[in-house]
Amino acid sequence: MIARVVQTISEVRPAWWVALVLLILFPFPANDFFTVQIGAYSMILGLIGLSLMILAGYGGMVSLAQLTAAGLAAYVVAIFGVNSNDVLGFGWSWWIVAPLAIAVGTLFSALVGLIAVRTSGIYMIMITLAIAVSVFFFARQNYEVFNGFTGYAGITAPQIGGVDMRAPLPFYYLCLIVAVVFLAVTAFAEKSPFGLALQATRDNPRRVAALGYSVTAIRVFAFALAGVVAATAGVLLVILNGRVSPGSIGVDVAIDILVIAVVGGLRHPVGPFLGALAFVLLENFAIDLIDRERFNTVIGAAFLLVIFFSPDGLLGLWQKLSDRIKPIQTPTKSEH
Amino acid sequence: MKYSNLLMGASLATLMSASGVYAESLKVGAVATLEGAFAALGEDGLRGIQLALNEFDGEVAGYTIELISGSTDASPDSAVRAVRKLVEQDGAQIVIGPLSGSEGIAIRDYSKTQPEVTFLNGASAAQDTTLRETSDNFFRFSTEGAQWMAGLGEYVYTEKGYRTVAVVAEDYSFPYTQVFGFLEPFCRMGGTSPQDARFYVPLGNKDYSSVIAALPDEVDAIYVALGGADAVNFLSQYEQSGGDLPLIGGSITMDQSVLGSKGSQRDYIIGTPAAGPISDTWDDPRWQAFVTDYQETFPDGFPSPSLFAHGYYINAKAAFLALEEVSGDLSDGGAAYREVLAKLSFETPTGMVHLDERHQAVGDIFLTEVVEGPNGGLLNKTISITPQVTQTLGLGYEEFLAYGPVSRENPVCE
Q1: Where are the alpha helices (DSSP H) in B241-378?
Q2: Is A207 within a domain?
Q3: Cα(A279)–Cα(A286) distance, rounded to whole angstroms?
Q4: Is B7 a domain residue?
Q5: How far apart are the first and last CA of chain B?
Q6: Is the peptide bond before B285 cis (omega within 30 degrees of 0)?
Q7: Using beta carbons and an 8 Å cutoff, which residues of B are at the interface with A?
Q8: What is the domain-level CATH number for residue B48?
Q9: Separation of alpha carbons B246 and A226, rounded Å
């Protein structure tokens, strides 16, 4: 296992190391806005997108309830941590609240998997959408636990070693560490026995079952793993915003996550992060490009163009570009 | 061809750099809901800022005002994201907005992290924004939801003789504030509103049959605090189901979107009293001038400025008046500017406005009643004006806080 990890790390292409160094250095030329609102926020959305990518890319299962898993984790933080709404808010320490939140999000995602796993394609989208919508409405109308429309505000950020984790630099690096870890683990797990089994259930579930695997168990476990990623992102989100309300888990936001994953590309775990970056940049700056009444059209048109020219999203565009350059530099293997 | 393009580009560049030298510009951020269900209202809010800016010819104390917009979808998260960009990226030192209640509370909280920036409200009207946990650099020159109800509770108790009312309202902070503002005086005088006769529906509710079926018979009237399509849906369904109880309207219930809608509920709502920060048909010359200005500047706007345009206009005007007084000097992090704002008192299209010690406006409120206009359309007729309504509705601050935060059950009123 350790040997494999070492081998995998040594096989990482230099371009990735360059990207990592650039990301580490990014906050120094950037202002607080770019550090947090563009950088850290992209990574959080990218993580939720990654959760969807794990299911859709490797398992062929499109779930619209991944944002809900993240949102529930955020709610757990508000309910068991400190909030300013005088509703619940048990004031537990972050060392308990954060793992609890991730556990709840994971459990929820696994439950969604249990319910949805026997369906596929459009039916799975419908079932997960139905779950997302019912949780949204339940949270909006339940006052005892979710505090209704208002939700929770004034959620304090954790202090680690006297450092306020909501401050731009610490928060950026927290997000970067989490994103890199999950990205690396996902890329690594792609070739693991479980990763291969999951991809096999995507390609031919009958044959996988004939080989003696339980397709349902593999899929539900994938949902649970995706839940870990989404729930961790949910905890980061609540540290960033200091608030959570039903609006944070609305259907429109769930669709945004789908857009992020699809526009970024479902072939490789880095896709959702690219998609999230493109989404966040457009969301923030489209209004400066064009008349304020029309800026949503720009966002929509940009995504439409990406999908039109490259069904694999931004990743596919990149692939096409590098394919065009490569044959000139090195002859392809088939010629040898 | 190419050469002429180049030439044009060069001359354009010269022109642009020349105008850059001509007048220094000052960035003002404007936050409004330009997406989602309230998009049309957010647009109208920005028209309000534009009207105020036009009065200054776009220039305050020698500085050209550069207006940068930020869009939200009425959720607090999106409001904070929009404001963050305006402040931290675009470098706006003055921000005007937002439009809806929960957004206002979120931006008030954010303002505490940016003590050098001055925030003015747009049209958001939740009570807590300026009542509890107030911020030193958040100002609200528009009145809020409970103030807007001033005079209505007393009016229906004494003039209409209602003693018991049912409540139908949307389920979030702004309608709670309105219900509180209406019931507080009504119940103080002796009226009641039983808890099981209060119905809170989700924003955007379409089917009111369960609410209508559960409405008790022994009430004298129904207080309706619904907005836009929600109000139209409730009123038409209630009328069709044979309901005949008289109505009392919230501030955004009896507005043009409801009065202008077709259907048999039209005749039924004649005579409905309501209250709010504006009255469409007020014959005062200041208001008439404002309406004419609005109609001429924005031929494709609403027939008459909405209370959102009015709220943004007042806050923007306050921002510019104070800016003029400090000669556009914000170099001290806006400290002097905020001092001027806190003491500012000025004439608006709806009367004088000044702030209390928590930066909340004290202003005039209109009591109106729906009547049939000369050409058959429905109008809100001004019945009376309650002058200089304070946020604490005439009570002391501590005494008022004892009521507790607005909620579904507040005031109890049994």
Answers
A1: 256-259, 265-268, 285-297, 307-325, 335-343
A2: yes
A3: 10
A4: no
A5: 82
A6: no
A7: 34-36, 43, 46, 68-71, 73-78, 80-81, 84-85, 88-89, 102, 105-106, 109, 133, 171-173, 202-203, 408
A8: 3.40.50.2300
A9: 55
Please provide the average confidence, as pLDDT, over all residues in chain B.
89
Neighbours of B298 (CB within 10 A): 16
Residues forming a β-bridge with B381: B369
**Tokens 């696994």 sit on residue:** A110
Could you tell me the two tokens for B320?
Answer: 């510019």
Distance from CA of A226 to the nearest CA of B (A): 24
- In chain A, what residues touch B85 (CB-CB under 8 Å)? 33, 37, 284
For residue A25, what pLDDT is reported?
Answer: 95
Going by C-alpha positions, the residue among B96, B102, B101 that lies closest to residue B138 is B96
The total of structural domains in chain B comes to 2
Measuring CA to CA, which residue among B94, B121, B83, B82 is closest to residue B26? B94
Residue ranges, chain A, pLDDT below 50: 332, 334-336
**Amino acid letter for position A335:** E
Residue contact A154–B77, C-beta within 8 A: no
Residue B12 has pLDDT above 50, yes or no: no
Tell me: the pLDDT tens digits for A152-161? 988 989 998 8
CB atoms within 10 A of CB B346: 13
CATH number for the domain spanning A116: value is 1.10.3470
**ipTM score of complex:** 0.84
Asked whether residue A235 is domain-assigned, the answer is: yes
Q: Which helix (H) or strand (E) is B388 found in, with range?
A: strand B378-389
Count of H helices and E strands in chain B? Answer: 14, 15
Partner-chain contact A153 B71, CB within 8 Å = no
Amino acid at B389: V
User: Does B202 sit within 8 Å of A141, measured CB to CB?
Assistant: yes
Q: How far apart are the C-alpha atoms of A101 and A88, rounded to whole Å? A: 15
Digit-coded pLDDT (tens) for A56-106: 999 999 999 999 999 999 999 999 999 888 888 899 999 999 999 999 999
Which residue range is the domain that position B181 belongs to? 147-276+365-401
Distances (CA, A) of A281 to A26, A287, B159, B324: 15, 11, 57, 35
pTM summary value: 0.87
Name the minimum distance, in Å, from the CA of B97 to any CA of chain A. 15
Phi then psi for residue B224, to 5 deg, are: -115, 115
Residue B411 forms part of a structural domain: no
CB B121 within 8 A of CB B32: no
Mention every residue, 6+ apart, whose C-beta is less than 8 A from residue B46: A292, B30, B32, B34, B69, B312
| Rounded CA separation B1/A218 (Å) | 65
At A99, give phi and psi (nearest 5°): -60, -35
Residue B23 confidence (pLDDT): 61
Predicted confidence (pLDDT) per residue in A285-304, tens digit: 988 888 777 788 888 898 89
Tokens of A142: 């339940």
Using the Cα atoms of residue B32, residue B38, residue B43 and residue B47 in order, give the sign of their dihedral.
negative
B187 and B93 part of one domain: no
CB within 8 A of B210, min separation 6: which ones?
Answer: none
Closest C-alpha among B3, B115, B48 to residue B308: B48
Strands (E), chain A: 159-160, 163-164
Q: Which residues of B touch A287 (CB under 8 A)?
A: 69-71
Distance from CA of B366 to the nearest CA of A (A): 29
Which domain range does residue A154 map to? 32-335
Within a domain: residue B14? no
* B32 and B94 housed in the same domain: yes
CA dihedral B385, B388, B394, B397 (to 10 degrees): 150
Q: Give the end-to-end CA distance of chain A in Å, rounded to a whole number.
A: 34
